[in-house]
Amino acid sequence: MLAALLEKIRSRDSIVGIVGLGYVGLPLLLRFSEVGFRVIGFDIDKLKVDALNAGHSYIEHIPADRIAQVRTRGFEATTDFSRAGEADVLILCVPTPLNKYREPDLSFVIQTTDTLVPYLRKGQLLSLESTTYPGTTDEELAPRVQSCGLTIGQDVFLVYSPEREDPGNATFSTQTIPKICGGVTKHCLDVGMALYGQVIDRVVPVSSTRAAELTKLLENIHRAVNIGLVNEMKIVADKMGIDIHEVIRAAATKPFGFVPYYPGPGLGGHCIPIDPFYLTWKAREYGVNTRFIELAGEVNAAMPDYVITKVVTALNKVRKSLNGASVLVLGIAYKKNVDDMRESPAVVLMEKLQDLGAKVAYSDPHVAVFPRLRHHTYFDLSSVSLTPDTIASFDCIVLATDHDRFDYAMIRDHASIIVDTRGKYLDAADNIVKS
Q: Which of 103, 93, 168, 157 is nearest to 126 (CA)?
């Protein structure tokens, strides 16, 4: 089985099944198809499947012409998971969110695996890319694969290779971002390395799936902790009357020993706000309290409240109450220049502002209509078109996500109050409050 599968992968005759066609799965399937693999995309969302089969894209930074091109190469999407048996390779790119108690929610991974198990056969590779805690592949996937009588490392091969997608990043792509891979056995690792080596410039092997799982967590916890540090520094600097963004720019001129991180209204995205909780939850099984990680999480989680305080203070200075005030939130994607709304702190800001009685609206050139989000309030709103009159009509503007397509000079010239959470406005102005 090993030799035959390796030969099919190296000759690119193997069929690759991508399970989960979101921000991770879609770029990956494009890459496999573009280098010559036949690809089948699996998703439970019929709207996504229909869009892809029609040659359309539902992710802003992925153009429709790339979808249309891979369709001509034989790519197809389906909601029929019974077709998993056609694939020689199955790559799971499904969500691993937190539940309402801020605990790991592996339901998507487990349910997807359970759905695939009846169709697994000898000579297949199963790869999990979803971010998760160390032990998930060994403890959750391996027993399910073995339950159908297949021997891992002999009949089928199981690896963990964490996704490292960065939506909208023009510098690094699926091809150029190095790939971590860990296998349940050596033969599993050999197959995983062979597969990803066909589409990724550099594949980095590690000794186990647990090491690969912890690698992904470390990458994002590193960012979460450092962002927590700089968010705390922002509060200290503000009390001292110092612009933290000026300080960061100055510190970044040091050519060694310093990496700049930037404060904001909170953490967003599919990884950084979530991944630390996967490790802190699992660490408790070993009697370890991850105090440093949890402290950074507390600081970051408190940032929306800090911004709200700034809004209240700014309105008070002009003798207005937040209750009844009209507030326009600029940018509701979790980072600039993308349409990705996952875990966006701007949504938390909108919820808190509304709960305090504000009349909330938003403007985002990348999000035309407010979507329905897991564990968040639904706002029946569309993006407000920015004009001088529109901007002047709001009591307060909160800059939450600093998209390049905003006309910042025009906004500054016509806004009554701007609460800038991103340090976009470098010069002091009477109507700008730095947060």
A: 157
How far is the C-alpha of 127 from the C-alpha of 271, rounded, in Å? 19
Q: Report in angstroms the alpha-carbon separations of 298 from 212, 231, 293, 302, 308.
A: 26, 11, 9, 6, 16
Please identify which residue in the block is written with the tokens 């510190």. 251
Using 70 as the pLDDT threshold, list the residues of the chain that sit under it: none
pLDDT recorded at residue 163: 97
Catalogue the active-site residues: 271
**Equal CATH topology for 2-207 and 302-434:** yes
Give the domain ranges of the chain: 2-207, 208-299, 302-434
Residue 172, token pair as written in the block: 């690094």
* Helices of type H across 273-393: 275-283, 291-301, 303-317, 345-355, 388-392
Q: Which helix (H) or strand (E) holds 18?
A: strand 15-19
Name the helix (H) or strand (E) containing 210.
Answer: helix 209-239
> What distance in Å separates the CA atoms of residue 106 and residue 352, rounded to the nearest whole number?
28
The torsion angles phi and psi of 62, rounded to 5 degrees, stand at -105, 110
Mean pLDDT of the chain, nearest integer: 96
Cα gap 98→108, rounded to integer Å: 11
What's CA 303's distance to the chain center, in Å?
19
Burial of 299 (0-12, 13-18, 19+ CB in 10 A): buried
Tell me which CATH code domain 302-434 carries. Answer: 3.40.50.720
pLDDT at res. 272: 86
Tell me if 33 sits within 8 A of 9, measured CB to CB.
Answer: no
Distance CA 75, CA 67 (A): 9
Provide the pLDDT for residue 223. Answer: 95
Residues with Cβ < 8 Å from 79, sequence gap 6 or more?
A: 42, 43, 44, 45, 46, 49
CATH number for region 208-299: 1.10.1040.10
Write down the pTM of the prediction. 0.94
Pick the CATH number of 2-207 from 3.40.50.720, 3.30.1300.30, 3.40.50.1820, 3.40.47.10: 3.40.50.720
